[in-house]
Amino acid sequence: MLREITLAALTTATLTLSAAIAAGTPSPPNAEAYILWPPDGAVIVGGKLWVRMGLRNMGVCPKGVEMPNVGHHHLLIDTELTTEGEIPSDRNHLHFGAGETEARIELPPGKHTLQMLLGDHKHVPHDPPVHSKKITITVP
User: Fold this and answer.
1) Rounded Cα–Cα distance for residues 123 and 87 (Å)
2) Domain at 28-139: CATH architecture
3) What are the extents of the domains in the chain?
4) What are the DUF4399 domain coordinates in residue numbering (predicted)?
5) Residue 82 neighbours by CB under 8 Å, 6+ apart
6) What DSSP state is assigned to residue 131?
């Protein structure tokens, strides 16, 4: 028996599938990302610093590993948090795809913001997104 499918039903099914594909990997509701170092308001003489990244109630793994409750860090420098789609890879969005939890960076003189965002195996933020609060540091 053939069944007629209406355009409205097909459109609804397509939108539902698109939303499911676009959504990131699920994260537990109690997951938390944070920056261990530097502290908010720090003054970094010379501009070279270690950024140490922390994560609670989830695990850190290399990019491409598809498992529940894991991801890898991305450091957002002087940019706004965006939680839709793939996380860019540029000078403002540093990827730590080997599962790193610390990194040595160098910043020019001025005020800078730092924020972490956890990405899944496809570099997409989890659902709900797991990110740190934004901190500000100064390089004299």
Assistant:
1) 6
2) Sandwich (2.60)
3) 28-139
4) 51-139
5) none
6) B
